[in-house]
Amino acid sequence: MGETFHARLFINGEFVESSSGKRFKNINPATEEELGWVEEASKEDVDRAVKAARKALQGPWGKMSIRERIQLVRKVGDLILERLDEFARLETLDTGKPLSLSKQLDIPRAAYNFHFFADYLHSVGTEAYQMDQTQLHYAIRRPVGVVGLINPWNLPLLLLTWKMAPALAMGNTVVAKPAELTPMTATLLAEVIRDAGIPDGVVNVVHGFGPNSAGAFIAEHPGVNAISFTGETTTGRTIMAAASRNLKRLSFELGGKNPNIIFADADLDEVIETTIQSSFSNQGEVCLAGSRIYVERPIYETFLDRLIKRTKELVVGDPFDPKTNVGALISKEHLERVKGYIDIARAEGRIVLGGNEPEHMTRGYYLEPTIVVEVAEQCRVVKEEVFGPVVTVLPFDTEEEVIERANDVEYGLSASVWTSNLKRAHRVAQKLEVGMVWINTWFLRDLRTPFGGMKQSGIGREGGMHSVEFYSELTNVTVKL
Ligand code: NAD
Ligand code: 6OD
C-alpha cells in the first residue's frame, strides 16, 4: 500500500492517540503485510468520548433544527461518494474483499444509508388519539441520547453507517467502535463527518478489542443509553449482561445459518447465478449467506453439477485484480476456524469441490469455494455458522420435511425460497422461523423494510420506521379538553 495508515481515535472532533499509549498492528489479510497502527482506546478514552457525546447532545446538536441536522446527515453521504475510490481501497485493504465489491456495494450503500435516513426523517410523524370531545393524546419523539455502535468486520462501513445514519438523523450522538480487524474506513468516515460540518462530539470513534477493551467499556458505561450491536451471538450475550447494569436499550443483529430452499419448478439459470452470490460473495462472510442449500430431489443432481461447474469459474485471488471474484478471508485465525469446519465436513460428509487453500496464492488467507454433500443434518457444518466460502447441498423430498429441516437450527435470520408456484412460495415463507424471506432472489434490499432476525439471530429490527423507533424515545402527552 505504500504509506501506512494510522487509525487514531476520534473524540470530540479531534484525532487523538490512546491515553494509555497502547496501540496494535493492522494486517492486510490478502498479503499478510502490515497496513499500519491502530490506537487502542482506554477506559478513560471511552469515558471522554461518552462525555463529549453527552455535551454535544445538550449543546449544538440538540439545539439544531431538524432541517439543518438532516442537511448535514445528507452531506455525509455526498462526501462519501466524492471519496468513493479512497474508501473502497481502504475497505479492500482491511477486509481482503474484492475491490469491485467495495466499489459497487459497500461504499455506495454506506453513502445511501445517510441519504436514505436523511430523506426518511422528513416524513416521520407520531401518533395522536382523540377520545370523544374530551381528551387528546399525542406522542412527542426525541433522541434516546448517547448511542454505542459496536460493529463487525465483514461489511465494516456499510454496517457502521446503517446504524450511524438513523441515529444521527434522529438527533442522537454516538460512540462508534469498528471491529479491531477493520479500523480504516471508520477513521476516514470521522474525517468526512468533520468536513461535513457535524459539530464536535456528535460522532466519536474509538478503536479497540471487545473484552476488557473499547467494546466492553462502551457496553458497561452508565452514560450510554442504547447500543446497536452487530456481530456474533455469543458476543451479544456478553454485551447484554454488561448493558443490563443501567438497562440500556439494545438492538442486536447476530449470526445466521440461512437455508436456500430450491423446488424443482424453480428457474434453474437464475437459481444458479444467485446461489453463487449467496454462497461465495464476500468470501461467504455475510450474515445472510445461504450456507445450507436444500434442493428438491428430482433436480438435485442437475443442480449440483451446474453449481460445481459455475463455482469452478470463480477466480480466487488478489482483491485488487478486477478478475477476482473471491478475495481473502479476514484473518489467519478465522481461516483456521473455517478450515476446522472443512475437516469436520471431510470426516462426516463428502467435499465435492474446494476445501483447500489455493496453491497459487502463497501469502494471504485464501480458501477455495467449498461444496459439501452427503452430510448428516445434525453435523456441525449444517448447524453452525461457518462464515466462510463453505456450503452444504442436500436433497429433500417434501415441503413439510424441508421446512422442518430449515427451522431446525438455533438461528433465524433469513431464508431464500425458489419456486415458480406462488402459493407455495407464500405458504413456505409463513412457516419459516426467520426474520427475512427472499422469494426467487437473495439480499434484495429496500431500506424501509424490517431487517433482523429471530431466535439466536437477534433482538429487534432495523430499517425505516424500525430504526427510527429504536433511536427515539417517546413521551405521550394527554390533554383534557
Ligand atoms: P464479533 O462478535 O466477534 O465482534 C463484533 C464486534 O463486537 C467487534 O467490534 C468486537 O470488538 C466487539 N466485541 C467483541 N467482544 C465484545 C465484548 N465482550 N463487549 C463488547 N464488544 C465486543 O463478530 P465478528 O467476528 O466481528 O463478526 C462476525 C459475526 O457477525 C458473525 O456471527 C455474523 O453473522 C455476524 N453479523 C451479523 C449481521 C446481521 O445483520 N445479523 C451482519 C454482519 C455480521
Ligand atoms: O443490508 C443491510 O442493511 C444489512 N444490515 C446487511 C447485513 C449483512 C450481513 O452481513
Automatic annotation (TrEMBL):
<dbReference type="InterPro" id="IPR015590">
    <property type="entry name" value="Aldehyde_DH_dom"/>
</dbReference>
<dbReference type="InterPro" id="IPR029510">
    <property type="entry name" value="Ald_DH_CS_GLU"/>
</dbReference>
<dbReference type="InterPro" id="IPR016162">
    <property type="entry name" value="Ald_DH_N"/>
</dbReference>
<feature type="domain" description="Aldehyde dehydrogenase">
    <location>
        <begin position="15"/>
        <end position="477"/>
    </location>
</feature>
<protein>
    <submittedName>
        <fullName>5-carboxymethyl-2-hydroxymuconate semialdehyde dehydrogenase</fullName>
    </submittedName>
</protein>
<comment type="similarity">
    <text>Belongs to the aldehyde dehydrogenase family.</text>
</comment>
<feature type="active site">
    <location>
        <position position="253"/>
    </location>
</feature>
<keyword id="KW-0560">Oxidoreductase</keyword>
<dbReference type="Pfam" id="PF00171">
    <property type="entry name" value="Aldedh"/>
</dbReference>
<dbReference type="InterPro" id="IPR016160">
    <property type="entry name" value="Ald_DH_CS_CYS"/>
</dbReference>
<dbReference type="InterPro" id="IPR016161">
    <property type="entry name" value="Ald_DH/histidinol_DH"/>
</dbReference>
<keyword id="KW-0520">NAD</keyword>
<dbReference type="GO" id="GO:0016620">
    <property type="term" value="F:oxidoreductase activity, acting on the aldehyde or oxo group of donors, NAD or NADP as acceptor"/>
</dbReference>
<dbReference type="InterPro" id="IPR016163">
    <property type="entry name" value="Ald_DH_C"/>
</dbReference>
